[in-house]
Amino acid sequence: MKQVYLDYAATTPVKEEVVREMLPYYTEVYGNPSSLYSPGLEAKAGLDEARKRVADLIKADPKEIFFTSCGTEADNWVLEGVADSLKDKGKHIITSRIEHHAILHTCEYLEKHGYEVTYLDVDGDGFVSPEALEKAIRDDTILVSIMMVNNEVGTIEPIRELAAVAKARGVLFHTDAVQALGNIPIDVKDLGVDFLSMSAHKIYGPKGVGALYMRKGLRITNYMHGGAQESKRRAGTENVAGIVGFGKAAELAGQNLESHMADLRELRDYFWEKIRTNITGVQLNGSAEKRHPGNLNVSFDYIEGEAILLMLDAGGISVSTGSACSSKSLVPSHVLDALGVPITKMNGTVRFTIGDFTTKEDIDYVADVLTKVVERLRELSPVTGQEGW
Ligand SMILES: *Cc1c(COP(=O)(O)O)cnc(C)c1O
């Protein structure tokens, strides 16, 4: 049976070139990068090259890149690190209602430990407003954390404007750029951010590797305590092969950014056009223009997203409903809820995310199966066509 993977926002396959570059670091260049003999220095050279490549992708200095075990660790580190470092200045943090759980759950943890968090609302497209941020900043605000691209609906936030508002008030600014990396251009200096989180497995690199960009001159409380790795800022023997893979994936992402964006956008628009013409009662969630090039988040009236997911899976197609992590909460998605999507539409929402290995044939196949699946589910639905479902 044909297999089509349309969940690139959840994770991506590792590219062959990336695996090839990683392999020798398991079996041949296995020295500890902290060791001073040649095999250790060789491993250290691999780390240095990867650091340069990741820095290049976001126009940073290699000295501003600190490798972590994942994007989640980078998010935890910056929130808890700034909270601890600046606790004498204040205990107020500002974020948005549509952040990834790596941010939201860390904020909840900090709230239990005496910090106060303001969760900014977003508009119907998912945008955080710079004016609302301005109003929320207080004398005791120590950090603003707003994601660059939303992982569910793909909306691209106005990070430059938001960071400028924070800077004008002397408040540090962090952005979770895990979904943005390799999918839209990033220039940390131009954006004016102080911290930025990244993850390798969303850009065709390995799982279990991330990084935090920390602007030169800044220093926050460490998250991992132990050895002197990562310029004494992140302890633990480095995942050398993984980091080398992250570096290669970053290099490829930088080289292919323009064509990658154009290809994804073309396929995505082609797919949306097919959905719109073949299926009635559909709604695109998130901004139509300022959007991740590979993201389509669609609500189908009268049916359950989970049912669509299962029936597509039976056809060899992998998609996601809302965020994988929110399946246990009462509202299917805190993001769609914040956008004001009514619960009835929210229930019938599917996220399709396209990537580098998606073909036009894949989209034709998925559009075809999807049309039949929606028709079938609506036939079974007791409320089809009823007002106010
Ligand atoms: C995937 C993701 C994360 C978490 O990254 P991991 O490396 O999987 O821990 C954080 N933020 C966003 C926006 C993500 O999409």
UniProtKB/TrEMBL annotation:
<feature type="binding site">
    <location>
        <position position="179"/>
    </location>
    <ligand>
        <name>pyridoxal 5'-phosphate</name>
    </ligand>
</feature>
<dbReference type="GO" id="GO:0030170">
    <property type="term" value="F:pyridoxal phosphate binding"/>
</dbReference>
<comment type="pathway">
    <text>Cofactor biosynthesis; iron-sulfur cluster biosynthesis.</text>
</comment>
<feature type="binding site">
    <location>
        <position position="237"/>
    </location>
    <ligand>
        <name>pyridoxal 5'-phosphate</name>
    </ligand>
</feature>
<feature type="active site" description="Cysteine persulfide intermediate">
    <location>
        <position position="325"/>
    </location>
</feature>
<keyword id="KW-0963">Cytoplasm</keyword>
<feature type="domain" description="Aminotransferase class V">
    <location>
        <begin position="4"/>
        <end position="366"/>
    </location>
</feature>
<dbReference type="GO" id="GO:0031071">
    <property type="term" value="F:cysteine desulfurase activity"/>
</dbReference>
<feature type="binding site">
    <location>
        <begin position="199"/>
        <end position="201"/>
    </location>
    <ligand>
        <name>pyridoxal 5'-phosphate</name>
    </ligand>
</feature>
<dbReference type="GO" id="GO:1990221">
    <property type="term" value="C:L-cysteine desulfurase complex"/>
</dbReference>
<dbReference type="GO" id="GO:0006520">
    <property type="term" value="P:amino acid metabolic process"/>
</dbReference>
<dbReference type="InterPro" id="IPR010240">
    <property type="entry name" value="Cys_deSase_IscS"/>
</dbReference>
<dbReference type="GO" id="GO:0051537">
    <property type="term" value="F:2 iron, 2 sulfur cluster binding"/>
</dbReference>
<keyword id="KW-0411">Iron-sulfur</keyword>
<dbReference type="InterPro" id="IPR017772">
    <property type="entry name" value="Cys_deSase_NifS_bac/arc"/>
</dbReference>
<comment type="subunit">
    <text>Homodimer. Forms a heterotetramer with IscU, interacts with other sulfur acceptors.</text>
</comment>
<keyword id="KW-0808">Transferase</keyword>
<feature type="binding site">
    <location>
        <begin position="71"/>
        <end position="72"/>
    </location>
    <ligand>
        <name>pyridoxal 5'-phosphate</name>
    </ligand>
</feature>
<feature type="binding site" description="via persulfide group">
    <location>
        <position position="325"/>
    </location>
    <ligand>
        <name>[2Fe-2S] cluster</name>
    </ligand>
</feature>
<dbReference type="InterPro" id="IPR015421">
    <property type="entry name" value="PyrdxlP-dep_Trfase_major"/>
</dbReference>
<feature type="binding site">
    <location>
        <position position="151"/>
    </location>
    <ligand>
        <name>pyridoxal 5'-phosphate</name>
    </ligand>
</feature>
<dbReference type="InterPro" id="IPR015422">
    <property type="entry name" value="PyrdxlP-dep_Trfase_small"/>
</dbReference>
<keyword id="KW-0001">2Fe-2S</keyword>
<dbReference type="InterPro" id="IPR020578">
    <property type="entry name" value="Aminotrans_V_PyrdxlP_BS"/>
</dbReference>
<keyword id="KW-0663">Pyridoxal phosphate</keyword>
<comment type="similarity">
    <text>Belongs to the class-V pyridoxal-phosphate-dependent aminotransferase family. NifS/IscS subfamily.</text>
</comment>
<keyword id="KW-0408">Iron</keyword>
<dbReference type="InterPro" id="IPR000192">
    <property type="entry name" value="Aminotrans_V_dom"/>
</dbReference>
<dbReference type="GO" id="GO:0044571">
    <property type="term" value="P:[2Fe-2S] cluster assembly"/>
</dbReference>
<feature type="modified residue" description="N6-(pyridoxal phosphate)lysine">
    <location>
        <position position="202"/>
    </location>
</feature>
<keyword id="KW-0479">Metal-binding</keyword>
<dbReference type="GO" id="GO:0046872">
    <property type="term" value="F:metal ion binding"/>
</dbReference>
<dbReference type="InterPro" id="IPR015424">
    <property type="entry name" value="PyrdxlP-dep_Trfase"/>
</dbReference>
<dbReference type="Pfam" id="PF00266">
    <property type="entry name" value="Aminotran_5"/>
</dbReference>
<dbReference type="InterPro" id="IPR016454">
    <property type="entry name" value="Cysteine_dSase"/>
</dbReference>
<comment type="function">
    <text>Master enzyme that delivers sulfur to a number of partners involved in Fe-S cluster assembly, tRNA modification or cofactor biosynthesis. Catalyzes the removal of elemental sulfur atoms from cysteine to produce alanine. Functions as a sulfur delivery protein for Fe-S cluster synthesis onto IscU, an Fe-S scaffold assembly protein, as well as other S acceptor proteins.</text>
</comment>
<protein>
    <recommendedName>
        <fullName>Cysteine desulfurase IscS</fullName>
        <ecNumber>2.8.1.7</ecNumber>
    </recommendedName>
</protein>
